[in-house]
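ok trying this again, last paste got cut off
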Amino acid sequence: MALTPKTLLVPHEIVGPLGSGGMGEVYKARDTRLDRTVAIKICTGRFTERFQREARAWLQPESPAHLFAL
């Protein structure tokens, strides 16, 4: 699923691609409600146990992943 700049995934607006790999594609986006930059991951195929573990890790407040600026 290729997304192009200005694509809306309410409340997010796609800015551009960041990268891709075996699990899918990652895009830089802007959260239009909070006016902040975020990363959106679009998975290819089924959601896997690996993706679910990764998603849970990102949601942890102490995760160092929250410290990366885009």
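PB: full thing came through this time. Residues 49-59 form the longest helix (11 residues).
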